[in-house]
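My current task is to audit a protein record that another person submitted. My question to you is simply how this chain folds and whether the tokens agree. This is what I was given:
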Amino acid sequence: MTKVVAWLIKVQEPWYMQIMALIATALLYSLLLGTINGCVALAAILLHEFGHLIVYKMAGKDAKILVMFPLGAVAIIVNKGEKRSNVLPYWTLGWLMLAGVVMNGLQIVIGLVLAQQPGLVGEIGDKVILINSVLLAFNMLPISNFDGGTFFKVISSTMRREYAKILTVVMMIVVLVTIVAFLAVTISGNVSLFVVLGAFGKVGFLLLCIPNVWVVMNHHDINFPVTPGSMNLWQTAIMLLVYSGLVVLLLSV
């Protein structure tokens, strides 16, 4: 998959190919999702990558966003000799991973405001919530090269191995308790089948987190050397709180 993405970036990087990729992506998304959904989805993806771009710029890196047909978009460092995992300190790299999903979270909040309005504005708000919730859940999954997976690799790489394992167990217990509480509250209420199915979808997201958190927190990735103390306790806690806040937002919509 990485080779395919690299090839797509190489082929579509010229400015004239970017124009064609943007038009083609917008048409494809509109065809698959409908005009409004397609536009909202493309905007959500571009804003997600804009979050990554902000962190790159704050770190002093020359970066840009590329539209990448048919996958969406990607923020990359312009200097091809650099890789994000070995040119950024863990503190910055952690925020790089969080920045994209934070942008999706902000769009969900905006969508909640719009959804209160009547007519087309309210309809667009509902679509903004739905599409950004899907992107948020997808990117937050702690799976290897996903934003969530890289984020937890960063967290674990700044800790001693035994502490990383303790934190992993604690997180897994919290997830299990959350699942039980979430289902108990949802099913005990007088809710529709649609709401119950939505609840199980969110539980599915949480269940996927359990084994994958263990894997990424106990990784052996040479690109993320274990350097205890490279982030202090407060820095780690702040990042985990932001991640947790996004999970709460995801479960509440």
